[in-house]
Amino acid sequence: MAITDNLDRVEHRIAEACKRSGRAREDVQVIAVTKYASLQTAEQLLQHGVQHIGESRWPDAEQKRTTIGDRAVWHFIGHLQTNKVRHVIDRFTYFHSLDRLSLAKELEKRAKSLDIEVKCFLQVNVSGEKSKHGCSPEDLFTFAEQVSQRDHLRIVGLMTMAPYEAKEQEIRQQFRTLRELKDELNKRAIFTYELEHLSMGMSNDFEIAVEEGATWIRLGSILVQS
Ligand SMILES: *Cc1c(COP(=O)(O)O)cnc(C)c1O
Fold first, then answer.
1. Residue 28 pLDDT
2. Smallest Cα–Cα separation from 167: which of 119, 223, 138, 127?
3. Mutate to test the pocket of ligand 1, among 9, 57, 77, 79 (most ligand atoms within 8 A of CB)
4. Which one of 15, 139, 168, 212 is least enclosed by Cβ atoms within 10 Å?
């Protein structure tokens, strides 16, 4: 299967999910996750219209990041170790895995010294699986308040990962919970601005995520499989 076929099929499925849920197609953006893909595959994705690339590890992503440069918008989607922040801070536009105060402090410190603002998603462990990173739903409001005081962090929304093997109803409920948490943060006006985005949905559950309000879906294997 060529990359173009993968892209066409995914596009069709996103469009159908939008139609089913009465959403506008342009409200859902795709991040092509290239962590298992070669530079050549990433280049092919870009040639066929992909604009956003997601990577989850540093320095594994370095070669692609350096070669592709600003021909893509870069998203750091994986767990971020505090001691890696200085390497990635000005190489990625979005950070999807802000899940603890120590990381917020380090991002703030580095962003301040570079005089930049970094766009972050707060990662929430909605499923409660021990293997997953993310702040618990119970701790989210306190964490959000702490983060809201950092002038160089712009929180654009919430991110979650559903369990890899779960029933559709369970996955749907978790995506719905993430949306409700975002609405609640906005209602309580913890930030001086509105959180707009939900980063949720991967190759095996992106249609459910779109139906539940995802504005960013993160697709790896389904785009690069042959
Ligand atoms: C790898 C990864 C993805 C993409 O996973 P696929 O199942 O291959 O689509 C999405 N989000 C995160 C955080 C990842 O680590």
1. 98
2. 127
3. 77
4. 168
* CA distances, 88 to each of 6, 61, 145 (Å): 29, 10, 25
% of residues, the chain, pLDDT over 90: 97
Least confident of 120-124, 156-160, 164-168: 164-168
Q: Are 190 and 141 in contact (CB under 8 A)?
A: yes
Q: Whose Cα sits closest to atom 5 in ligand 1? A: 220
Q: Which atom of ligand 1 is nearest to the CA of 56?
A: 15
Quote the ligand 1 centre to 115 CA distance (angstroms): 31
**Residue in 81, 37, 25, 35 with CA at minimum distance from that of residue 55:** 35
User: Which residue's C-alpha comes closest to atom 11 of ligand 1?
Assistant: 218
What are the pLDDT digits (tens) for 186-222?
Answer: 999 999 999 999 999 999 999 999 999 999 999 999 9
All residues at 6 or more sequence positions from 38 whose CB lies less than 8 Å from its CB, including other chains: none
What is the CA(200)–ligand 1 centre distance, in A?
10
How many residues appear in the chain?
226
What residues are in contact with ligand 1 under a 6 Å CB criterion?
33, 35, 56, 77-78, 161, 202-204, 218-222
